[in-house]
């Protein structure tokens, strides 16, 4: 329960709390960001070609310091610490995001594929040079006609038993590789995902190492590369299209951790089910999604730091004769910024839990069971979706809250919003990711069919009793806890205090359970009525996605509540309680129609929640600046012209 | 009531319906857009300096054709038709938006100020050359420290009775003119808004014609200009900052339609109240807001045309073995795009009503009463707010609905979203504009105090009986109509058909009346409790803005319903009914929490509305392409690479 004295913040202690287990890595990253801070102006001033080169140079330089290789084994020059590599990556999102994404492409996607899908021979051949930034590569999965449904890729790798080579071919323009980072200018190697064919038999999608440029940067024979051209943002990353016209690579270039082809053309894999095999391969690349979500949350911190300071310097209207009112003294402005600050804290702590689970799974010495891996993938997908939507929304709101000044590139929002905009649709489109989350919940992370096959899910769920579906989800157990903790049996929804975390958790858990059960019922009813599964799915799709969102929101709130409870008593704990209440109640307010529809929120209680939110905003107003300072965004990364000391907007009157 | 057969669209007839009274002007504008269509690629390919020059050249060329001068008197080379000039401007929003905004700056703001605030001597001196594009100017109102509160501008114009000159001075950096379009490179004249001082006495803000560059483009003595630098978008417009260091201009350069200074320094105005005088001056510039709202609505049409066609060409998942499903066959995708199409139609018709009222008021031969002018300004403010928010939201949703392809600049969304982004905060920040709307409603368009003085409004409302406030609003009368038309007395909210326009109108009207009355009560209660008016306003601010939004939404729905009812029976009328239902029900769904809180929506009815929305989306799905084609966006303006014939994404399989 929140302690409602006038809150205060111990800023350094709050920053330490946010930095968590990786204070040193985050601090070192902050220092490095400051060292290449001039890239923020280069981003505005250099033309696309020059900026790309500048970004590449920074990335290679960073690689030299060890900053970008923390997740690789120490024997190849890496840091051997997955959690540290996520922390470093997230923190880099305070700075230029082309640098961040190029790092993600080179070390996360390209390097990650070699590490996770390759075996020792590939590690020995490539890892040292790619970790040091001497060997640049790209991750050639997405095709123009296949973004989300990667199992249906068109590129073909045919095994030639005579020469012991694979022949890589792009059969049509639909199947050209597209939006591939590092492809248009810098990559020498590509990890290419293609349909493996042996003697006319298709074995599904596998990954191959394919050279695309020589050491001098010349594109190799039978490879065609085209620049994707200017993009909304991230113009320091060279995205491109690749066509392969019968490119021959040695048999050894198949990344063969999960499947191999013998010299004589016999296909071998320890995983029999081709769907399971493919999604096991993909699952090893989950770190990318974890990183993108974390980056979005941190980009939000930059925007909120700037917009909050602007709102504490800028005056408007009021006080006839005297100075005008500070923007942040307006109720509306408080309502615009403070719930976003609260949600940023919430997502930060949810991301911390996720990154911890990632570290545990990928650092485990014993084999990790498949269900745990699937649950991790699901949580990564859901956190990525919520984190990236939050990033887009927050940065946009911050830009608008700074009016005309927010529109000038010198005030940072331009690059922030343009660069992060793609995060909601890359590394998995957010809607598709939430479908994956829902499917995990509805099938209890069964791996009997492809992760992305919604029709399979429809049939699976339709074949079960609804009770079984709900029983299998962990929500059900959580609901029982609700009843144990909150008094009044089923009356908790009316009788608990609204600023009681248990009440808020109960609301979130109840919604999740009810939505999931509702989806299961609708899927069954549709199938029972003899409807086409496609139609059944299409009609329930927003409900499916809504239930996944409800699930992830619950995880976020739990992470926040757990963190607050674990914080030692003191001003920061009190401030965090206010933030946690504000996050939870804002989320309830945003979806209050749903709870009212389902009899879990009376109209008077709903109004009381809205009133409480405004009250919480007023209480947090005096510590708004401390709350954003605690994010620990270096001043150089908040280099908005309108905040510079001595300029008019930066004057604190 | 909607006719629910499978709908069809007569596309040319629907376009004609949308084009309304200005078919010819809109057609001619479309042709001109196509003539300079290459600017869409120039926007991506040219550097900022060159693109600015290109944009300027296009603007001057358009001026030569008469395209941009339709609103000016014929004796100065104009077209003498305000309505036509709005139609032409709106239609230009299909094309490059830097061109549009530069046209707005030159002919709407600069030219509009000379025309509306000046007298014959100014018209004779400047209009002919500015209409022909030979004399470029800027509108120097906004200052770095004063965006929304323009009455508090810092620039001073002191009358020197010795030399019969005004001396224009920028007292501090807060008061530098900022974000001024045309200032950084092209303007020779500036209309400068400054505090008029005569003999130590301040007479409030007035507008003055101030030369800032010579004929060769050299900045004049005592004028300092700085480039605002790169912006999120609109980089073809040269925004800048201006400082004046005692710049002397002849007495005649005061734009003296509403106030004048005699040679001997006597101030004269027919409007005694200085607030009223200032807002009368500002009110003459209302056309700018009308134009920006219309432009946003039309920019949405471009985005929706592209995203809808993409969703009808792009396939994803489903159909094992066969072709994948079209994006638009997914329920979620329908839910993402179709309500936005419906709302675009709704806003289009609301904008048509507004433009018609603008034309009537500004073309009237007799004096128009002040209340009518105020109501027009309020409607312009509200429509601008809703139209520009809709534009930002729609374009963003369309970009995300096209995934990675949407992120490439060649697919149009980049420029569309970046260029329109500032529309929500320029020509009046949307929140400030909605406050103005609420104030008009709460004070029955009283002009006793400044339009933007919220504290004055608080005191005014607190001094009235709540019943009086509500009585004075036109909503009250509308509510009585509800009771006449819908059966069941107060049970209409439960008993009417949800697809009955009367039900939907009743819901919108009831919300507006209830919110306004609620705001009035809260303002009174706060003042009665002895609270500081600033605090009273701050606490009610979101409620104030919410009530204004409810008011404008009601106007939009009324405009749409009126239009549908006036449409001759036939397929288009049926299609419009479906769209109108979809718009109204989507708006109710979005705010369903509010209606449930206030006892006007049961939970079962709320669920029925959500179900009906999905049903309407499915019904509209087969005519989605016709509905966007009817917008009449020239193919060249939908020049998204991903839709080009022959490219993979454009193939209709």
TrEMBL record, chains A, B:
This is acyl-CoA oxidase. Signal peptide: none annotated. Its EC number is 1.3.3.6. InterPro entries: ACOX_C_alpha1, Acyl-CoA_Oxase/DH_mid-dom, Acyl-CoA_Oxase/DH_mid-dom_sf, Acyl-CoA_oxidase, Acyl-CoA_oxidase_C, AcylCo_DH-like_C, AcylCoA_DH/ox_N, AcylCoA_DH/ox_N_sf. GO terms for biological process: fatty acid beta-oxidation using acyl-CoA oxidase; lipid homeostasis. One of its GO terms (molecular function) is acyl-CoA oxidase activity. Residues 138-247 form the Acyl-CoA oxidase/dehydrogenase middle domain. Residues 25-134 form the Acyl-CoA dehydrogenase/oxidase N-terminal domain. Its cofactor is FAD. Keywords: FAD, Fatty acid metabolism, Flavoprotein, Lipid metabolism, Oxidoreductase, Peroxisome. The lineage of its organism: Bacteria, Bacillati, Actinomycetota, Actinomycetes, Propionibacteriales. Residues 283-442 form the Acyl-CoA oxidase C-alpha1 domain. Its main location: other. Residues 502-634 form the Acyl-CoA oxidase C-terminal domain. Belongs to the acyl-CoA oxidase family. It is found in: Peroxisome.
């Amino acid at each position: 329960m929140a302690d409602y004295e006038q809150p205060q913040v111990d800023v350094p202690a709050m920053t330490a709390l946010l930095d968590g287990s990786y204070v040193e890595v985050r601090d070192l990253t902050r220092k490095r960001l400051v060292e290449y801070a001039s890239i923020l102006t280069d981003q505005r001033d250099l033309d696309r070609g020059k900026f790309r080169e500048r970004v590449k140079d920074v990335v290679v330089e960073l690689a030299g310091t060890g900053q970008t290789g923390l997740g690789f084994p120490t024997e190849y020059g890496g840091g051997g610490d997955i959690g540290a590599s996520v922390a470093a990556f997230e923190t880099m999102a305070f700075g230029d995001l082309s640098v961040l994404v190029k790092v993600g492409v080179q070390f996360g996607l390209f390097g990650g594929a070699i590490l996770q899908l390759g075996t020792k021979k590939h590690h020995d051949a490539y890892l040292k040079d790619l970790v040091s930034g001497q060997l640049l590569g790209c991750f050639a999965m997405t095709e123009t006609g296949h973004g989300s449904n990667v199992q249906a890729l068109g590129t073909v790798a045919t095994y030639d038993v005579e020469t012991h080579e694979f022949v890589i071919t792009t059969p049509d323009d639909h199947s050209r590789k597209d939006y591939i980072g590092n492809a248009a200018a810098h990559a020498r190697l590509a990890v290419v995902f293609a349909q493996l064919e042996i003697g006319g038999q298709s074995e599904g999608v596998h990954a191959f190492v394919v050279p695309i440029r020589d050491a001098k940067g010349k594109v190799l024979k039978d490879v065609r590369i085209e620049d994707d051209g200017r993009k909304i943002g991230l113009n320091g990353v060279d995205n491109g299209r690749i066509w392969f016209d019968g490119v021959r690579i040695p048999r050894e270039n198949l990344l063969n951790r999960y499947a191999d082809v013998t010299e004589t053309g016999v296909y071998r894999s320890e995983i029999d089910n081709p769907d399971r095999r493919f999604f096991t391969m993909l699952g090893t690349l989950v770190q990318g999604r974890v990183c993108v979500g974390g980056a979005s949350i941190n980009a939000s911190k930059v925007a909120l730091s700037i917009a909050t300071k602007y709102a504490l310097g800028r005056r408007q209207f009021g006080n006839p004769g005297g100075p005008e009112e500070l923007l942040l003294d307006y109720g509306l402005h408080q309502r615009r910024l403070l719930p976003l600050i609260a949600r940023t804290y919430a997502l930060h702590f949810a991301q911390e839990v996720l990154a911890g689970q990632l570290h545990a799974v990928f650092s485990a010495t014993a084999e990790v069971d498949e269900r745990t891996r699937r649950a991790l993938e699901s949580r990564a997908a859901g956190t990525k979706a919520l984190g990236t939507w939050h990033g887009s929304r927050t940065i946009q709101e911050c830009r608008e809250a700074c009016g005309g000044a927010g529109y000038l590139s010198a005030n940072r929002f331009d690059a922030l919003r343009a660069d992060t905009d793609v995060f909601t649709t890359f590394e998995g489109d957010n809607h598709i990711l939430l479908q994956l989350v829902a499917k995990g919940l509805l099938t209890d992370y069964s791996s009997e069919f492809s992760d992305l096959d919604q029709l399979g899910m429809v049939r699976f769920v339709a074949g079960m009793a609804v009770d079984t579906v709900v029983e299998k989800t962990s929500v059900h157990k959580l609901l029982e806890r609700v009843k144990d903790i909150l008094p009044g049996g089923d009356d908790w929804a009316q009788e608990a205090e609204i600023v009681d975390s248990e009440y808020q958790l109960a609301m979130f858990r109840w919604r999740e359970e009810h939505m999931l059960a509702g989806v299961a019922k609708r899927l069954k009813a549709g199938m029972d009525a003899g409807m086409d599964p496609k139609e059944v799915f299409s009609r329930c799709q927003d409900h499916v996605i809504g239930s996944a969102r409800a699930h992830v929101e619950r995880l976020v709130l739990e992470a926040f509540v757990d963190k607050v409870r674990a914080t030692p008593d003191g001003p920061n704990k009190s401030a965090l309680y206010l933030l946690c209440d504000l996050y939870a109640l804002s989320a309830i307010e945003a979806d209050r129609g749903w709870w009212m529809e389902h009899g879990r929120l009376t109209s008077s209680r709903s109004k009381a929640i809205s009133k409480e939110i405004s009250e919480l905003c007023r209480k947090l107003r005096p510590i708004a600046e401390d709350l954003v300072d605690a994010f620990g965004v270096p001043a150089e990364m908040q280099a908005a012209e309108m905040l510079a000391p001595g300029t008019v907007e930066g004057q604190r009157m």
